[in-house]
Design brief:
Number of helices: 13
Strand order of the largest sheet: 3-2-1-4-5-6-11-9-10
Shape: globular
Structural class: alpha/beta
CATH superfamily: Ribonucleoside hydrolase-like
Order of helices and strands: EHEHEHHEHHEHHEHEHHEHEEEH
Mean pLDDT: 95
Helix content: 25-40%
Strand content: 15-25%
Radius of gyration: 18 Å
CATH architecture: Alpha-Beta Complex
Number of strands: 11
Distance between the termini: 22 Å
Bound molecules: beta-D-ribofuranose, calcium ion
Low-confidence stretches: none
């Protein structure tokens, strides 16, 4: 076994964020060194508390959690996603509180210190609005330059949006930050709705890890409200766990087929705000090009997630 890749998750838990954190903890290929939190699905204080509780659920309260940005960079975006994730963000499930407190450092400081001190390249999985990563780029550019791989869940190349006709939630929640990140030279993989929407976890998949033990059962409970929302809103019998797919790509690079594309975010205040304009006419060789995930083997991705989550209880199924 090779040395695990140091990993940071920047997150706004969030149901699928919770699954993504659990997936990282279940994966020996990565070593989760830090969780940084951001506003997004719910308010920052809640995303931070949720991150602490999810780590504690998996017996990993030792992983530091540093709180980041409470609001987007330029334009306040007060709308949250409580109707999808539950008002407290974890689908109405009250996980036991963590004995660990929050790291005293602001998220960008904790992230910069980790990047500058790590002898190995660090993978950063950004699965919430990109405010913290944009701040890191601006405040600690020398630390940002040491990111080995940035895997972002966000945007959409061909599928339109999920929060407006044009915009995906994470980009829409802070388009200026997304533009700063996707327009930078960071080695970025963009995992958007093109690959997440076809990757659906159904009741049978969820039942498999629910039966594995107490951690799997809690993960399944967290998903229940999400499943009901999907049933009510889309008439589907499964759920899309966007952030877990992004983590899969962070854990196993190359899981998704990517193409280097030029990506621009619409930061205007009109109907297109938050849209990711992905130029699919050509492969880009520009240093700012982004590896856009365009194809996925959804069945394999679901199997990977279910097997790994079941493994958290020590019994892969
Ligand atoms: C993204 O938005 C959030 O609601 C999810 O946690 C995910 O990161 C999907 O558009
Ligand atoms: Ca998220």
């Amino acid at each position: 076994m090779t040395t695990p890749i140091p990993l940071v998750i920047d997150t706004d838990p969030g149901i699928d964020d919770a699954l993504a954190i659990l997936l990282a903890l279940a994966s020996p290929e990565v070593d989760l060194r830090l969780v940084t939190t951001v506003h997004g699905n719910v308010e920052l204080a809640q995303t931070t508390d949720n991150a602490l509780r999810v780590l504690h659920l998996a017996g990993r309260a030792d992983v530091p959690v540093a709180a980041g940005a409470a609001a987007s960079l330029v334009h306040a975006q007060p709308e949250r996603a409580g109707h999808v994730h539950g008002t407290a963000g974890l689908g109405g499930v009250q996980l036991p509180p963590s004995p660990a407190g929050t790291d005293p450092r602001p998220a960008v400081v904790a992230l910069a210190e980790l990047l500058l001190s790590s002898p190995d390249p660090v993978t950063v999985a950004a699965i919430g609005p990109l405010t913290n990563i944009a701040l890191l780029l601006r405040v600690f550019p020398e630390a940002a330059a040491r990111i080995g791989r940035l895997v972002v869940m966000g945007g959409s190349a061909a599928r339109g949006g999920n929060v407006t006709a044009a915009a995906e939630f994470n980009v829409w929640a802070d388009p200026e930050a997304a533009q700063a990140v996707l327009g930078s030279t960071l080695p970025t993989v963009l995992v958007g709705l093109d690959v997440t929407l076809p990757t659906v976890l159904d009741e049978h998949d969820i039942a498999r890890f629910a039966a594995a033990g107490p951690i799997g059962a809690q993960a399944a409970a967290i998903l229940q409200q999400y499943l009901e929302h999907a049933r009510r809103s889309y008439g589907t019998t499964g759920v899309v766990v966007h952030d877990a797919l992004a983590l899969t790509e962070a854990i196993i690079p190359g899981t998704l087929d990517t193409v280097r594309r030029h990506v621009v975010v619409d930061t205007g205040l009109g109907a297109g705000r938050g849209q990711t304009l992905v130029d699919r006419r050509t492969v880009s060789t520009a240093p700012t090009a982004v590896e856009v995930a365009e194809r996925v083997d959804s069945a394999a991705a679901v199997e990977f997630l279910v097997t790994r989550l079941s493994g958290l209880d020590g019994r892969p199924r």
